[in-house]
Amino acid sequence: MPASSPPPTLPDRWRISPQAAGERLDAYLAGIYQTSRNQTARWIRAGLVSVGSRTPKPSLRLDGGEWVSCEPQPVRQDGVLEPEEGDISILFKDSHLIVVNKPPALIVHPGAGRESGTLANRLLARFPEIASVGGPGRPGIVHRLDKGTSGLLVVARTIEAYRDLSAAFAERRIEKAYLAIVFGCPQPEAGTIDASIARHPRRRKEMTVSVHGRPARTTFKTLAKTADVALLEIGLETGRTHQIRVHLKHTGHPLVGDPVYGEARWKSLPKTRQKPLREFARPALHAWRLAFHHPETGERVEFTAPVPRDLSELWRALAPDAAPLPFQVRNDSNDL
């Protein structure tokens, strides 16, 4: 298939938000254009990107408030994403965007040799107009969740909405809150984890805290606790790969069920508590709330995703006397 240019959903000149101050230019553009840093670095080195009157380097740190322009090169698309029927939990939709509650086992979009069975395939079957919105293989997708993470995901239905939402995520103008069940009880019970994150030097699919990494900040607040586990509300001030999982491990309170960054602490607990912890086979993490300004009206909108049954039942088994996790949450919606 011949190379295809990035779709016209992508901006070519705009003013950088103050929230993006300190971000590397190549990483910032990767968020805007939903592509890799290697790709945006190639555009920068080819002279296709300017910041103000400067021809920058990929490592340029943004001040916020500058004008940036980009003329992206063609991106090769080796295959066409096929629509596939499948269940989608839709919490809200209008003519501009869709908000879905992603189940934990579903991958957001194709990658690493996988071309089918993803949320993106299902979205195309339900909303065929998004085929021309977004990057190759990622129709309407403006942000991602790891496969094992459940919860809120926003999808753009129009070019304009994609442009606005992509910029909002890249510039950290989206308010995000997660629910997490972790081993141990953090002390203090609330605070901020400020620790840079980089690619692991040996295990290249993993991330790790490193003084040579990119700045990363995660907030946490204990909502409930038992003697050996706690329920936390997590907020993100930056958006690094695996940020929540890496930061929680760094603080000594890894996510229950995390196959990469977790620990088998259940082995040291009483036998009556071992089974639910041992058998929970995914990171105990749920993207719970999202708030942002609607790309068309500018009004602030907020969404809350019902907690999936597996996470709710895990908490009930670990804390039978505690209040249950919110399972049914009412959201206003339009059927367009």
How would you characterize the overall build of this protein?
There is one protein chain. This protein is of the alpha+beta class. It has a domain at 13-70: Structural Genomics Hypothetical 15.5 Kd Protein In mrcA-pckA Intergenic Region, Chain A. It is 19% helix and 23% strand. It is built from seven helices and 14 strands. The protein has helices at residues 25-33, 37-45, 119-126, 159-170, 243-250, 271-279, 309-318; strands spanning 13-15, 49-51, 67-70, 90-93, 97-102, 150-156, 175-183, 190-194, 197-199, 207-209, 217-225, 229-236, 285-293, 300-304. Strands 4, 5, 6, 7, 8, 11, 12, 13 and 14 form a nine-stranded mixed sheet that branches. A three-stranded antiparallel sheet has the order 1-3-2. The chain has a two-stranded antiparallel ribbon with strand order 9-10. Helix 1 (25-33) crosses helix 2 and helix 1 (25-33) packs antiparallel against helix 4 (159-170). The longest helix has 12 residues, at 159-170. It is globular, with a radius of gyration of 20 Å. The chain starts with 12 loop residues before the first strand and ends in an 18-residue tail after the last helix. Mean pLDDT is 86; it is low at 1-9 and 327-336.
